[in-house]
Amino acid sequence: MKGLSTILGMLAAALLIATSAPPARAQQAPLQDKPFAEHKVVLQLSDNDPRKQSMVISVANNLMKFYDPDKVAVEIVAFGPGIELLRPENPNRKLVESLVAQGARVDICLNTVDTLERETGKRPDYIAAATPVQVGVAQILLLTENGYTLVRP
Known about the structure:
Blueprint lengths: L1 H18 L19 E7 L4 H17 L5 E7 L14 H9 L3 E5 H11 L9 E4 L2 H10 L3 E3 L2
Parallel strand pairs: 1-2, 1-5, 2-3, 3-4
Organism: Bradyrhizobium ottawaense
InterPro entries: DsrEFH-like (IPR027396)
Keywords: Signal
């Protein structure tokens, strides 16, 4: 009987685990409110290369000019070394803020920010125009699952 009690206890524990709520996931930024957007593009920036930063900004600007800003949803997701674009001292700051003013969204990966804080002991600053997302790659996945085309200039 003792063996049966152990098995029943293990089954009860397994059932409790199986029926418990899934682990909570950090929220990602909701999709942009662009009801008239006919085109949706997510631009990935994961490099701290000034040429790539300029290319991402250029692509976003070109899309906003080619399509009416209301007709295109543009989202830049910066993670890893790519978050350098969103630092206050970055020379492209005004260009990024201009894109946001035109309706683009620029996301910054908080996992990267947290990692830098652990490594340096100081939380890196980033511009107010940046939208914080917990996981940059998860934001890209969310966007592509919702009709966005991923472009990595």
